[in-house]
Amino acid sequence: ICELKNLFELNFGGNKFEGHLPQCLNNLTHLKVLDVSSNKLSGILPSVIANLTSLEYLALYDNRFKGRLFSFYSLANLSKFEAFQLSMETDLLQVEIENCLPTFQLKVLSLPNCNLGAIPNFLLLQFNLKYLDLSHNKLAGNFPTWLLENNTKLELLYLVNNSFSGFQLTSAQHGLLSLDISSNSFTGELPQNMDIVLPKLVYMNVSKNSFEGNIPSSIGKMQGLLATYMNMTQLWALYLHNDNFSRKIKDGLLRSTELEDLDISNNILSGHIPSWMGNFSHLHTLSMSNNHLEGNIPVQCQNLAGLYIPDISENNLSGSMISTLNLSSVACLYLQNNALGDRFVKLNTSY
Question: Keywords in UniProt for this one (predicted)?
Fold first, then answer.
């Protein structure tokens, strides 16, 4: 391969190659794309990459590299560099986050599972990012609003499974399309100005945190998540489990008739199950377990003919389940720890 001196793209990702990357890769001075991801490569990351001055895209993730620390200094002089992907499933490789003055401006940076411990300082000098993934890195502190302020073109931001605790947004509007901050330590209420700051958002995951209070009514104004004329009519999945949302379920989802998956389990929701949930004719999975819901299951739930996994366990529900739930498609049914009054249930399903 090293004899192909005019090669500008080398992609052998997704194979079972073993051993070290050859040092002779520095012969490929015209190389723009190098993808060796998802193999079984080992050893230290070769410093030879620093000599590939034409490199624009580098993917090293999902291998077995180990040894000394990987330093961004080795990439600092790659002035054409735009995309870098690296991740490790073990602690065999550490990524240094020391001060670095790069000559490049990245558009894509993916560093999940890289044992960072802190956000790399060189990101303070990046202004063209469109995709940033810093998930699974034990990062702490407040939500890094400066990443949005510095990178006005940022479209996807993933900070999953870290230890961020404060979630506040500035007043400046941003064009972010996808945001995932699930599995962190965020507390308090969701920002009330989300519709102003993030009006173009089409995907948002804030599950597995410690948010509390009401879901801001401003979310209903976010046209990126919603249809043009009717609020939330295009929403097909909503996951709000393992937070501290309280009070009654209001009618914010009234028009979300395309919902297929709804998970509001493990919260402090109270009151009755709203009758308009019977309008969710496409609903496959419904999880409302471990709340304080009470009263009867609405008879309108008979309309949920496609319901595959209903979980309404660990509540204070009462009355009859047989006459209110359509069980024709049910594969798994969870009712435990309620006050339902049925004497027996006979399920005729094809599962």
Answer: Leucine-rich repeat, Receptor, Repeat
